[in-house]
Amino acid sequence: MLRNLEVKTYRFSLSWSRLLSNGTLATVNTPGVQFYKNLIDGLLATGIQPMVSLYHWDLPQPLEDLGGWLNPDIIRYFNDYARFCFQQFGDRVKYWITFNEPLVITLGGYGSGFMAPGVQQPAEGSYKAAHNLIRAHAEAWHTYDKEFRGSQKGKVSITLSSDWCEPFTTKLEDVLAANRAMEFMLGWFAQPIYGDGDYPDVMKEYVGIKSKMEGRNVSRLPEFTKAEKKKISGTFDFFGINHYTTDLIENHDRGISHPSWDNDQNIASHQNSSWPPSGSSWLREVPWGMRKLLIWIKYKYGNPDVIVTENGVSDDDEHRGSLLDTQRIRYLTNYINNVLKAIKLDGCSVAGYTLWSLMDNFEWTSGFTETFGLHRVNFTDPLRPRNAKASVAFYRQLIRNNGWPRSADQGQGLGDL
Known about the structure:
It is built from 15 helices and 14 strands. The protein has helices at 2-5, 16-19, 30-45, 61-64, 74-89, 102-110, 125-147, 149-152, 172-194, 201-213, 226-232, 261-264, 287-301, 326-344, 390-401; strands at residues 9-13, 49-55, 95-100, 155-161, 164-167, 239-242, 246-251, 267-270, 306-310, 350-353, 375-377, 386-388, 403-404, 415-416. It has a 7-stranded parallel sheet with strand order 1-2-3-4-6-9-10.
């Protein structure tokens, strides 16, 4: 499938427990290591550069039993795992991602609990988990920088996820609310890593005020030490971003009766019903949001090299199960065109793009009901046959052209990516 698509890069994740059965170096699973070596070698033999995520939400159960991301000891365990992966695969892998979507890991896993491991501590759990995850990322980045960069010459960063948050009205309170939503969603992790090593000021302000109103002596948002801020700031080699959709934001006082990340922001969020829907309740097609997000990253974080590590759409009711996925072709055309506008018209530094996903797959709490793939998978057949959707031919041609070239009478390169 990858050869047929003619892609230059393939992003995949390692399973921590597949490599280290109980999460520690005491339980190396040699067949698991060989599996990934074979995969990497196969990609390179085909001329495809592997981009490897160390962590895509699957924590070994023995480490979760110790408290998972709520336990500061996880920083040491993750660094051991990261070093092991750099040692085993780093001579062939030049792009590393420490964590995929820390927002989902921490908020879904330890706040609302809608994702694994399902810990429901909305007031403090997500903030504590994020605090440990950010420090774990920085530790792993420095390990690579000190021990491996000189010989392996690779790049290490993190992949964040963010919607674009558009003000619902032009009222100042809604404009400020949309800005606040961006800081809580993206800035929560981006500001420490790509900024000054600390959480966004507005986030510290709002969580601090609400914590005091709740009768707490200290904020529910933890604090980094001066040394930690210095260590965390600048731990990136590119800006990984996953983006799918846009939200409309308005100011709304959420009170203090139910402390949580959601309520700390004092916003209300919704989407315009006229925006084209998908097979996912949270995802509507809003291409201009991609461009605005890239512009935000440019001006907020100093125009780093951005790699769009995920972007795509689930088949809507009309196209689910069909190979003629014209909806996906429209979505990709419009979103990638807005990436192009951000590069050509806005001066955004975008170094790469990988879509979600190669084939229909297991979409976490949605199981097999939401299909994002370029290839249809028949999940009722034990052999899981895969068939190319129409978007495969579209995407292959886009890769060949590296964008949308001018017509013959206009010359080449208007839409080169």
